[in-house]
Amino acid sequence: MEGKNTQSGYLLGRSSWESCRLNLQHYLFKEDFGYLLHPSVNTTEKSLIADVGCGTAIWPIQLAKTLPPSVEIHGFDIDLKQAPPPQWLPDNLKLDTLDALAEIPEHLRGKYDVVHLRLFVFVVENDDPMPLIRNMMTMLKPGGYLQWEEYDREGSILKTAIAGQSVQCMVAAMMFPTTLSAASRSQKLSAGWPSRLGQHLQEGGLQLVADEKKVVPDEYLAYQQDVNMVSLEEVSRGWAEEDVARFGDIFQAAEKERANARKGIAFTLRRRLCVAKKPM
Ligand SMILES: C[S@@+](CC[C@H](N)C(=O)[O-])C[C@H]1O[C@@H](n2cnc3c(N)ncnc32)[C@H](O)[C@@H]1O
């Protein structure tokens, strides 16, 4: 499948379309939270910061612009296909490959003042983020900060701009992981762990410093739903043939329904940001 990362089992693609989706999503996160690093995360002129699963590298690129050039930033991903070439990166940003779920190499252990993660919801296995939390703890210095952002589906509702608007097709589209055959269904799609993120971090031995939840405001709901629709389409590329035959047109039907509603149908996903500190 074009742009699909079959080797690592990553559910999303690597096409330009998917990179645009990640970058729009980044701006929506930044707009809603109002910062890249939470104010409780203390940095100095000598801080060493890692962004793990950096995707297009837009977060570390923008962070580099807000911090002194002496701060070093390292972006890691299992696959750097979506990131710009090294020649176009800020001088204090270096990118490298890393499998965040495998054993962390010796030279990255206990090294970072800050580790950042965002949107691992389709990556974490068995609804259990603890192996990832343990690895991120390993990368942190004692007293270092882990900042992590995810979508938290708890309390999400399907919202319509016009009362009584038909939403049948959108409900089918958003429900699809539970309707697919086992061959297509991934346990990563129905993950509930982001709703318990703060608790997981504490269970992992970190001290929770901040736990923020932001509901997408009405003026950005249509853009957020654009992001949601593209991510569903991306995931559907990995479907089994029988599911394509049965459900192949649910996204087109949902888009048509949304167009009829002048884009006034959207899921009210909540953004969640946790900051946790590794004990000294
Ligand atoms: C949904 S994207 C989010 C990208 C970026 N953090 C952002 O917020 O824009 C998830 C990223 O995690 C990366 N990823 C998947 N599995 C990984 C692993 N085992 N180790 C490191 N990165 C991984 C993917 O390649 C992808 O770039």
UniProtKB/TrEMBL annotation:
InterPro entries: SAM-dependent_MTases_sf (IPR029063)
One Pfam entry name: Methyltransf_23
PANTHER family found in the cross-reference section: METHYLTRANSFERASE, PUTATIVE-RELATED
Protein name: Methyltransferase domain-containing protein
